[in-house]
Design brief:
The protein is α+β, with helices and mostly antiparallel strands. The chain is built from 4 helices and 5 strands, in the order H-E-E-E-E-H-H-E-H. Helix content is 44%, strand content 20%. The relative contact order is 0.21.
């Protein structure tokens, strides 16, 4: 399993290549840290975001590798979203970001 720094660097590389994410996004990794994405800026700071995704680091990696279905993760409580409507709207862009980050 990748470390928080490794995941952050992968996402930073994907964000810099241009994913078209028009909103800020934060992954709350359940006590293991944060990944905050705002355009091409990716940090581990706990900053406010338009959408907060609460998920374990292991499950975040599984989502990126398409080993975990996002809807199953939500239904089983493995992933929580601060704004379901915004998450649905951003889903294609977020999936592209994950695909480039894995």
């Amino acid at each position: 399993m990748a470390t928080l720094d490794e995941i952050t660097e992968r996402i930073r590389g994907a964000a810099v290549s241009g994913t078209g994410l028009a909103h800020s996004l934060k992954f709350d990794l359940k006590g293991e840290g944060f990944i905050h994405i705002d355009g091409a800026a990716v940090t581990n700071a706990d900053l406010p975001a338009d959408l907060v995704v609460t998920i374990s680091r292991k499950d975040l990696e599984a989502l990126g590798k398409r080993e975990l279905d996002p809807m199953r993760a939500i239904m089983t409580g493995r992933m929580k979203l601060s704004d379901m409507g915004l998450a649905m709207k951003l889903q294609p862009v977020i999936q592209t970001l994950f695909a480039r980050a894995v």
